[in-house]
Amino acid sequence: MRLCTWNVNGLESLFRKGYFADFVYRTSPDILCLQETKISRRKLAQWSISTRDWNCFLSICKTNEGYSGVSTFCQSHCPLLKAEEGISGFLPAECLAWNPSRSWFCNQREIPIWRETAYSVGYHFETTENSELLTKLDKEGRCVIVEFPFFILFNVYVPFDSSDETFEYKYIFIERLLKRIKMVLEGGKNVVVCGDFNCARERIDHCDPEGIFQNKPRGSLFESDSCRQLFNVICSSEGPLVDVFRYFHPERLDAYTCWNNQTGARKTNFGTRIDYILANRAFVENFITNCDIFNDIYGSDHCPVYIEFRSIVSLSAESLHVERLPPFCCQHFPDLLGSQQSLKDMMKISIHDKSNKIVEMRPHFVEATAFNRTCITMKSDTSTSEEGHSQEGKYDDTIRLPTKRNFEKSTSIEMDTFSNREYSSTVSGSENCFHVTKYQKAKEDWRKLFHNLQKVPLCSGHNEPCLLRTVKKKGANLGRKFYVCGRPIGKGVEGRCNFFLWYDNRDTRS
């Protein structure tokens, strides 16, 4: 059996561009854990997250639509017992109140919290804990827990620390996760934890541990990060869990799972390993046979990580005395009732959408339509009858960029240039006037903007054109522009050189 984890950085984009289909066909996972799905509740039915051949457990961010979110997919042949949302148990179990007409849903007037239901995994914190803060953490959609017969799976997305406030937020999340893991282990259960921890454990897992390329303040040692220290408490030789990848590949270098897309760092493999699969040592030694990284799978700024474990004896729901799937399963969502489809159908839709993407028009065609003040009449879907006469299709009442297929089938594009005035186009026998003078104005504005700009300098290291960037960090230089080497960040001669030059605004046209 195979378990995969992947920070997809937007599940909708992954489906639309066809990357998800390629991923599933190549990896064939039995259990799939995704982070940063960014799914909103109103789009659940559109993407049909609930499928007939997979059971899905989804946690959606409840405070910011389209942010964060994790989901765990299990093939229908994988027996499971319970499932709950969040690491604290204090999060309201809203799914239990979605369909109270079913006898096996909770019929309480008020929505119970997970620790009060019979469907929770258990091993929760004491009620004296800061329930308000923990509930706030869980409302961001950062954890899904699923209990299988032989282990309990935590799918987590640890907060990113971009400031002192979010750093404390991240520390508390890791601290509470560690505490919950210890309680599960003390209960005699095996534990598997996977997801994006937004933290590299050791120097070997980071391309720039000294912070030279990231301009970190001197004296801030890699090991001094308190979140990293806490994370290593989980995975130390005396800790409760094992970093499964390092268990099988203790000395592998340049094994990264995340790269900066803005700097093109994946081309030079200048990244970090922040996506992990952790498990207690007994489970690793007795069941797990391999762990590795799919660094050639694209679609996100992360790549998938997987483990393979020995086939555990297949158990039926009847032998486990499980009457039905937990109510947290997406197939019970009222938003999705009647819309379930197979995962293969979802991938076909994904591939179809990818093949029908609108292609970019050639530069001369764009210039003619946008800036040369022309009127375009497109004869689309032109075909020839058996008698040899051309049969013209009806004109559309809107001007659209053609798809690749229709662009090739179009037999003529008539462009009539008029004088400087308003233009009209006859569409389907009726006159539909539209103004094109604004395109001419836009062209003139762009011409003025780029007429006398500062000449792009060449970097000193490679003698190649530089890139113009803008300072986004708060401070005296916020918003100021500068030139840097155009190559992606990385080590050696193939990486970006140290060239730097401030952009001189005085050279621009006033």
Structural features, described:
The protein has 510 residues and is of the alpha+beta class. It folds into three domains: 2-355, Endonuclease/exonuclease/phosphatase (Deoxyribonuclease I, Chain A); 363-439, no CATH class; 452-507, no CATH class. 22% of the residues lie in helices and 20% in strands. The protein is built from twelve helices and 23 strands. The strands form seven sheets. The chain has a six-stranded mixed sheet with strand order 3-4-2-1-14-13. Helix 1 (11-17) crosses helix 9 (343-355) and helix 5 runs parallel beside helix 6. GO terms for molecular function: DNA binding; DNA-(apurinic or apyrimidinic site) endonuclease activity; double-stranded DNA 3'-5' DNA exonuclease activity; lyase activity; phosphoric diester hydrolase activity; zinc ion binding. Its EC number is 3.1.-.-. Its cofactor is Mg(2+); Mn(2+).
Q: What's the total count of β strands?
A: 23
Query: What's the CATH topology label of the largest domain?
Result: Deoxyribonuclease I, Chain A
Largest sheet: 6 strands, mixed
CATH architecture of the largest domain: 4-Layer Sandwich
- Classified by CATH, the class of the largest domain is Alpha Beta
| Individual helix count | 12
Which bin fits the share of residues in helices? 10-25%
Gap between N and C termini: 65 Å
Amount of beta strand: 15-25%
Total number of distinct structural domains: 3
The poorly predicted ranges are 316-322, 349-435
Counting helices, strands and paired strands, the structural category is alpha+beta
Can you say what the CATH homologous superfamily of the largest domain is?
Answer: Endonuclease/exonuclease/phosphatase
GO molecular function: DNA binding; DNA-(apurinic or apyrimidinic site) endonuclease activity; double-stranded DNA 3'-5' DNA exonuclease activity; lyase activity; phosphoric diester hydrolase activity; zinc ion binding
Cofactor: Mg(2+); Mn(2+)
Protein name: DNA-(apurinic or apyrimidinic site) endonuclease
Keywords: DNA damage, DNA repair, Endonuclease, Hydrolase, Lyase, Magnesium, Manganese, Metal-binding, Nuclease, Nucleus, Zinc, Zinc-finger
